[in-house]
Each structure stands twice: as structure tokens, then as C-alpha cells.
């Protein structure tokens, strides 16, 4: 009996020693550093990036012949709207898990969304790890002055809202753990920038003529200031009036598209069309003044605002955001050839 006990004790001792040695030789595992990197996307622009799409118009997606199937991706069986799966957002201090309601505030039509909802739902599904959206948008701003980069600013420096965009992004990353405890200690990577803006430059011929040069330089400056020289950029088309737009709107769209054709930007800047998502049915109701007549519920079931805000259509805002995300995902899988 004593011999058997001695043998068992010896074996246990040997196992303990071996385990201790192995533990000492094994590389240290940091529970935060070894977790997936947080992919960060900067969403910037003016009022339509803020978001004017009424959440109560979102069910209209389900009646769309082409896009109706998408309703299942965003609506729960009880009619509520889904949140992003490990997708987070900071919109100038309004922060949390991605959900509806991160559009503009103060609407009489209830909570609003911008492109962030469709973008975040789509990009989150394509990422294995966490996603953070840093959204910086203010209504009524131009690239010529408000978002002017430091290079073109000269002695006057960058435009106020360029500077505020940089400050918002950097402070969000610096305070990641405080703002999002679920992401504390994680590494971050600026995985993409979405730029959706243009109205205040489009309505001025001089600003339209300078838009290509101004936005191209702003993108270069953003990449320098955010230390992300190869960061993919998506430029959203000013798609107001849809495919029936004419005159100055078409001239401006050409100026937007030309940014992605600059020799040094061709490889990872993409121009994404949005005109196809403009709601012609809502537009016709608006043109017929249904929105202010006795049958106004027909309009407000699917829209909530003026044409320059894409008629306040939640469907349009969601589809544009999804298109921006699809372009970003395509950039990962089939990057454009470098010039």
C-alpha cells in the first residue's frame, strides 16, 4: 500500500513540475491585446449624413420589389428594429450599440436615421470582430470653407468642421475604454472613411467648379492627420432628384465622381451612386402637395421631409448606407489597381 501511494505521489509531483515548467515557457496571453482589432469607420458630411430618414417610414422597404427582402435583416418578429451585432457608434457624444435613432435630432416625426444604420448593419455582418462608427456631421456645411483641409487653408488653417471632425475621431479613440467599456484595451484600425456631402457646394457655381480639387485635397489631409495613408474612402453621390436630375446637379455629380479619378486616389477612393435609391413615389406625392393635404398620411407613411433631404425616407437612407458598406467590402476583396 505504501509503495503504491509513493508511486502515485511521484507521478502527481512529476505532472505538477511539468505543468509549471510548461506554463513558464508558454507565451503570455493578454486577454485584451489578443482579441480582434476594432475596425473603425469615420462617417462624415453634412445634413444627409446626419440623417433625416424617419424611422417610422422604414417598413416601406418591405414593399419594394427589388429590396423588400432586406426588411428581414433589420426588423425583429415583434416589429422592433434590430441593433448592430457588435457594432458601436459615437455621433458627437450620442453613443452606444448601433440602433435606429442615430440620425438628426429634433424631428416632429420621431427618431431618424442616416446612412449609419444601413452601413453599420451591413459592415458589421462582414466583420469577424467589433466595429465602431465615428460619425461627424453637421447640417449646412461646405467643403470650400467649413471642411477645408489644412493644405488649402494656408495661414488660415483648416476649416472649423474639418478640425472638429479630427478632434471627434481622435478623442473617441483615445477614450475608447471609457466610452465603450466592452471595447476597453482593444487595438483599433481606421478601416474606412465615408464622405456624404455636397448640397452647400452644389448650389454655388464657383464652389462646384472647385469641388474636385477641394475634396481631393481634403481626403489627402484626412489621411495624413489620421495617420492612415492608404485608408479606403467612399464618396456618396448627391443623389437628390434621382435619375431625373438635371442642370447644376449633374455638373456637381461629375465633380464628385472626378475625385475618385485623381491619379493618386484611383487605387482606394470609390464614388458610389445613390440616385437610384431616391424614392420617386414619395417625390410624386410631394410634387402633388399630398404631404400637406387631407390625404397626407399617404406621404408620411413613406416619407417625412423635403427633396433635398431625400424626402426624409428611411428606406432611402438605409439603402444608401448599405451601398456605401457594399463598396467598402468590395474594396477588401477586389481592390482597384494602383496607378
Q: How is this fold's topology laid out?
A:
Layout: H1 2-25, E1 38-45, H2 47-50, E2 53-54, H3 71-74, E3 87-91, E4 94-97, E5 112-113, H4 115-126, E6 131-137, H5 150-153, H6 160-174, H7 176-179, E7 188-196, H8 199-202, H9 205-225, E8 233-236, H10 248-259, E9 269-272, H11 280-287, H12 297-300, H13 314-333
Parallel strand pairs: 1-6, 1-7, 3-6, 7-8, 8-9
Antiparallel strand pairs: 2-5, 3-4
Please give a structural write-up:
The strands form two sheets. A seven-stranded mixed β-sheet has the order 4-3-6-1-7-8-9, sandwiched between helices. A two-stranded antiparallel ribbon has the order 2-5. It has a single domain (36-333), classed as 3-Layer(aba) Sandwich (Rossmann fold), CATH 3.40.50.1110. Helix 4 runs parallel beside helix 13 and helix 9 (205-225) runs parallel beside helix 10. It has 13 helices and nine strands. It is globular, with a radius of gyration of 25 Å. It is an alpha/beta fold and 339 residues long. The longest helix is centred in the first third of the chain and has 24 residues, at 2-25. Helices cover 40% and strands 13% of the residues. The protein has helices spanning 2-25, 47-50, 71-74, 115-126, 150-153, 160-174, 176-179, 199-202, 205-225, 248-259, 280-287, 297-300, 314-333; strands at residues 38-45, 53-54, 87-91, 94-97, 112-113, 131-137, 188-196, 233-236, 269-272.
Amino acid at each position: 500500500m505504501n509503495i503504491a501511494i509513493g508511486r502515485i505521489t511521484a507521478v502527481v509531483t512529476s505532472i505538477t513540475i511539468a505543468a509549471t515548467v510548461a506554463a513558464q515557457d508558454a507565451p503570455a496571453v493578454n486577454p485584451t491585446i489578443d482579441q480582434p482589432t476594432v475596425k473603425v469607420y469615420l462617417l462624415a458630411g453634412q445634413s444627409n449624413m446626419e440623417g433625416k430618414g424617419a424611422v417610422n417610414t422604414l417598413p416601406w422597404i418591405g414593399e419594394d420589389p427589388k429590396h423588400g427582402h432586406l426588411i428581414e435583416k433589420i426588423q425583429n418578429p415583434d416589429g422592433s428594429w434590430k441593433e448592430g451585432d457588435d457594432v458601436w457608434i459615437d455621433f458627437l457624444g450620442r453613443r452606444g450599440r448601433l440602433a435606429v435613432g442615430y440620425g438628426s435630432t429634433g424631428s416632429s416625426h420621431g427618431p431618424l436615421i442616416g446612412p449609419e444604420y444601413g452601413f453599420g448593419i451591413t459592415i458589421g455582418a462582414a466583420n469577424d470582430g467589433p466595429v465602431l462608427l465615428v460619425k461627424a456631421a453637421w447640417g449646412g456645411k461646405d467643403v470650400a470653407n467649413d471642411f477645408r483641409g489644412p493644405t488649402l487653408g494656408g495661414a488660415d488653417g483648416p476649416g472649423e468642421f474639418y478640425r472638429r471632425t479630427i478632434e471627434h475621431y481622435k478623442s473617441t479613440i483615445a477614450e475608447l475604454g471609457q466610452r465603450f467599456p466592452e471595447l476597453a484595451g482593444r487595438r483599433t484600425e481606421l478601416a474606412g472613411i465615408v464622405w456624404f456631402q455636397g448640397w452647400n457646394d452644389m448650389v454655388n457655381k464657383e464652389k462646384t467648379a472647385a469641388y474636385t480639387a477641394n475634396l481631393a485635397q481634403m481626403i489627402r489631409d484626412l489621411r495624413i492627420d489620421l495617420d492612415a495613408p492608404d485608408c479606403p474612402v467612399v464618396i456618396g453621390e448627391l443623389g437628390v432628384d434621382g435619375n431625373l436630375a438635371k442642370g447644376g446637379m449633374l455638373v456637381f455629380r461629375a465633380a464628385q465622381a472626378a475625385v475618385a479619378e485623381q491619379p493618386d486616389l484611383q487605387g482606394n477612393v470609390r464614388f458610389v451612386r445613390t440616385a437610384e435609391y431616391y424614392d420617386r413615389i414619395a417625390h410624386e406625392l410631394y410634387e402633388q402637395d399630398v404631404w400637406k393635404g387631407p390625404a397626407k398620411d399617404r406621404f408620411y407613411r413613406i416619407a417625412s421631409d423635403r427633396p433635398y433631404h431625400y424626402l426624409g425616407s428611411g428606406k432611402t437612407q438605409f439603402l444608401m448606407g448599405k451601398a456605401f458598406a457594399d463598396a467598402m467590402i468590395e474594396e477588401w476583396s477586389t481592390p482597384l489597381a494602383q496607378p
